Amino acid sequence: MRKLILTILGGLLILASFFIAYIIIQNKNKAKPVPQKVIKTVFADTVKNATIPIVIPANGNLTAKRRVELYAEVQGIFRSGSTLFKPGQVYKKGHSLIRIDASEYYASVQSAKSNLYNSIVAIMADLRLDFPEIFPKWQTYINDFDLTKTTPKLPEMTSEKETYFITGRNVISNYYNVKNLEQRLSKYTIVAPFNGILTEALVTEGTLIRSGQKLGEFIDPSVYEMEVAISKSFANLLQTGEEVTLNNLDATEAFKGIVSRVNGSIDATTQTITAFIEVKDDKLKEGMYLEARLNAKQEENAIEIDRNLLLDTQQIYVVRDSILDVIPVKPVYFSDAKVVLKDVPDGSVILSQPVTGAYAGMLVKIFKDKSIKTSN
Description:
Layout: H1 2-28, E1 40-46, E2 50-64, E3 67-71, E4 76-79, E5 90-91, E6 96-100, H2 103-130, H3 135-144, H4 160-168, H5 171-186, E7 189-191, E8 196-201, E9 208-209, E10 214-219, E11 224-231, E12 243-247, E13 254-266, E14 272-279, E15 289-306, E16 315-320, E17 323-328, E18 330-334, E19 338-342, E20 349-351, E21 364-371
Parallel strand pairs: 1-21
Antiparallel strand pairs: 1-20, 2-11, 2-15, 3-10, 4-6, 4-9, 5-8, 6-7, 8-10, 11-14, 12-13, 12-15, 13-14, 15-19, 16-17, 18-19
Pfam families: BSH_RND
InterPro entries: MdtA-like_BSH
Organism: Flavivirga aquimarina
């Protein structure tokens, strides 16, 4: 009985082994599933070459086109006037900015004028006797001479005898001595050379002012300039009188300006050329930071795309029969975010957005087809 049971169990074990081996063989012969090909969806544009304006971004701070740094040429006490010498004070052309006490110097000027007057009066008798033909004009000069006013110009001398006679009496030397003193006396008062505003005041009324001391700064707030540095490659493209659009940092306000001057030399260190943009607006203030867009030139038969679509090998991706390919291109201008390209055939379908892991030969499907923007 025991042998029978063992025989049956052995037979079952053999049958089970054959069954398991059969299943393994069957599974081994089954065909493996073929992985499905992944086709990426891409965004593409159809190329249409056009004329692309090359716009150069630049920025800088505004400075007044007309500004005067005020310096003292004489010494004295700063006298108070009708308006305080303070930053923000507005002055009209010809209005007194600073008056320095010139009482002592004024007395010396009057003394010199008196000496000139006396030297002319002393020769009047000789003129009447020896030069009766010129006596009337010198008599008129004496009659019009006013010590409280600016010394008038001497009468014109018409002969050598008259010149020698007048010069020999020291009239001419006395006259120019007076004019020199009067010229220096005028420097005790500084007047506004144009309508403007005081932006810096370094002295106050009652201050002792010394010769050569800086007193402040005065500007014309109606016209400003912005200095910008442009790449030397555009040196021959910028033209005086060209219109420029300027924006503040928040891009909430726009101003119109013109290129007023272009420097004739290139900075040897930075290899840039300096241009000056003139702008007028009541909202502008000196020192304001603005951004400008300069129209350098028009590039014909070109397109403009994002910089991240241009490969390091100076190539871009195109779609041909649902397969990615690359074509060589010629970049002609780079901005912060864009690049202008030439040698891209019309009708080419190029990527409008970068594709992660893209390579030549990749299967793709175009999501949407639209005409590329070729101008701003």
